[in-house]
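step 3/5: co-fold with tryptophan
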Amino acid sequence: MSNVDRRSELARTAGRNTISVHVGEGTRRTLHEDVLDGLTRPSKELPPKHLYDTYGSELFDRICELPEYYPTRTERAILTARADAIVATTGMAELVELGSGTAAKTRVLLDAGRRAGTLRRYVPFDVAEQMVRATAGALAEDYPGLDVHGIVGDFERHLAEIPPPEPGCPRVLAFLGGTIGNFLPGARRFLAELAALLGPDDFLLLGTDLVKDPDVLEAAYDDSAGVTAAFNLNVLTVLNRELGADFPVERFEHVAFFDPERRWIELRLRARRACTVRIPAIDLEVSFLRGEEIRTEISTKFTRQRLAGDYAAAGLELAEWLTDDEALFALTLARRRLPDR
Ligand code: SAH
Ligand code: TRP
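step 4/5: write tokens
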């Protein structure tokens, strides 16, 4: 083979690995705004996306391996059992994944796409830049011929940066890990934004954690090894580093409980003692009473009925409901509701 032939051969089989970055200065502003907004309310709160700096992402990976944290292994088991069927139903030529993280479970789908010979492009989208770069790099290497286009962005602000689908390439938009549950009460609005990204031949593949015994739920968010506590507390370290704040991290403790009325797990950080914290970057001084809490995350637990209602409100319809034997977790396929279907 001549050199020229070899080069064109490579171009044809090697796939492309591109990364576009849409966070940076703007995102730092978001952190400023989020913290100012969240910590000056009567009930203090912080939005969850700031939990995932490099160390936070590492801790989250450890959460996924914990015996108490059943969602990851359960979702993986459902994917393993159903990936070929999902690919057959959707004709998946392109997989776009929001909050892709390390994409460990996604490989099950990528393998099925490779077996079927339909898959052309994978688009991992995550706010954690190092994670997107490492994941895109590893996948481009492990899946020769696959076009990998990583996007570093905030899915609450940069969905428009997702490249348009190629004509005749059915797209699957995946949002796994139950992350949709971290949105409520805004999940319906977010689902409607996702619906707008779907063409008539495209599918949403959504992972949702299901309502179950509160003891099982609470253990999943308050493990005996303390990894979840460290993950939750890490957000204060992020504020100390990024905003020059002086949170005495050791004076706060991790709290997780199931709210049976709202059917969500609530994660909080509680001040063990009264303290005053300075946050120079936003020129703010915040006082905490002893026992005062900051809400850092909610994780909504679904039922089939609730999800069907959320889909309908977002202009989507449930196409497939895939669950495990114990009905711990559900993966669903949904499509845009079209008048003639
Ligand atoms: N999909 C993986 C990871 C879930 S953890 C799994 O199922 O295990 C949630 C992921 O979403 C993290 O990788 C985090 O960095 C990312 N994330 C959280 N908020 C985000 C936001 N606003 N925009 C983009 N990514 C976000
Ligand atoms: N999406 C995950 C969930 O709701 C995120 C998560 C797991 C999480 N454990 C956590 C977020 C602990 C904050 C704290 O299950």
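step 5/5: annotate
The first helix runs from residue 3 to 13.
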